[in-house]
Amino acid sequence: MTEVLLNLKYIRRPFKSLSILLLAFLTFESFNWLFAFEQKLSKVANYGGVLGYIWILFRGGILPEISTLVIVLMMLNIYHEACRIKRLELTPRNILRYEIKILPVMLVAFFLFNPLTQTVRYLLVEFPNYDLEFYLDKYIQGTYSVRLYFIYLIPVMIIGYGSVNGSLLIDILEQRRQRKRTNETPDPFQSLTPQPGAFLTHLKGKNSFGETIIAVQDCFWFETEDRYYYAIHPTGRFSITKTMNELEQELNPELFFRTKRNCIINLSFVASYAYWENGKYSIRMQTPNNDETDMPRARLQEFKNRLVRFSAQEVEYLPPKSEII
Predict the structure, then answer these.
(1) Is 70 exceeded by the pLDDT of residue 73?
(2) What is d(CA 161, CA 59) in angstroms, rounded to the nearest whole number?
(3) For residues 133, 134, 136 and 141, what is the CA-based torsion angle, rounded to 10 degrees?
(4) Which residues contact 316 (CB under 8 A, 6 or more apart)?
(5) Is 104 left (phi over 0), alpha (psi -120 to 50) or beta?
(6) Does residue 276 share a domain with residue 137?
(7) Which residues form the HTH LytTR-type domain (predicted)?
(8) Among 5-19, 181-195, 256-270, which stretch is predicted with the lowest mean pLDDT?
(9) What is the mean pLDDT of residues 270-281?
């Protein structure tokens, strides 16, 4: 089952969604011309022709609605964070459930963006003849009505769902590109062929049941917690004596990669990786619990190179236990 990490590109960067705002505005304007053609012609005449009408449309329509766009996208971003919506399984049922889950944001957005949008519209349209009583009566109290709520609902739905689904499409395409790049065969001259027996192959590990010997190639990852060092193995979590620096020097660099200061992962168990947030990438491991770890952007390029070399070589070591260090 395919799963995608939601980066929310259009939601977290509102100005990338200006095209969606224009689409929503043009849809709204088209409906007005369709159902109130004569009234629209009258307005064009009142504003001194087509150019005058376009100017007032831009000043009193498009510019104020930028604040609508920003607030709707901010609400969607906060909603995703509050509900911890970070991943989506790409099945019709889960996608439909996701679309329904974000619907309440669009339904209540009007009550939050309306005061700011109307204030911006008042400042642009009525300049320089400002009147507080007229502003409160027409632009604030007069705009909180059932009629205006439903007039705004269609553009808000276009903005919200357009940004959400546009971001989802970009995330899907980016994930496919990353998988394609990972599967590409690298230049053979860039490969580093490790010599058998040159790297650490087994470790002594200890858990609540006692001590044992574990093969490093079977470990999912190594981590640090409260100044103690652990190996995460299919049979459990084992305490080890080697530090992260020692492991980084002694483990096969074609099989293991240090993602950050306190974590070294086994490339054999990497399922996928994708951008997460704040310059970090999320790495999903092929473990029973689909565990995840994060990695800073600075390590990304080297991580990609290691993955490419690993997929081309798939080196395995099965040395005797006499080589324990």
Answers:
(1) yes
(2) 25
(3) 130
(4) 217
(5) alpha
(6) no
(7) 213-309
(8) 181-195
(9) 88
Range of the domain at 13: 3-183
Per-residue pLDDT tens digits for 40-57: 888 888 878 888 888 888
Q: Which two tokens stand for residue 134?
A: 């007229």
Q: How would residue 1 be classed by pLDDT, with cut points 50, 70 and 90?
A: very low
List, in sequence order, every residue forming a beta bridge with 89; answer none if it has no partner.
Answer: 3
The secondary element (H helix, E strand) that includes residue 216 is none
Enter the pTM of the model. 0.52
The conformation of residue 139, written as its DSSP 8-state character, comes to: I
Residue 298 contacts residue 281 (beta carbons within 8 Å): no
Same domain (yes/no): 172, 238: no
Clarify whether residues 261 and 157 are in a common domain: no
195 has pLDDT over 60 = no
What are the b/e assignments for 149-185, b being 16+ CB within 10 Å? Answer: eeebeebbbbbbbbbbebbbeebeebbeebeeeeeee
Start-end of H helices in 83-145: 92-101, 103-108, 110-125, 132-134
16, 9 contact by CB (below 8 A): yes
Burial 270-284 (b: 16+ CB within 10 A, else e): bebbbbbeeeebbbb
Within this chain, do residues 40 and 101 fall inside the same structural domain, yes or no? yes
Instruction: Quote the number of domains for the chain.
Output: 2
Which of 11 and 107 is assigned the larger pLDDT?
Answer: 107
Which is higher by pLDDT, 312 or 248? Answer: 248
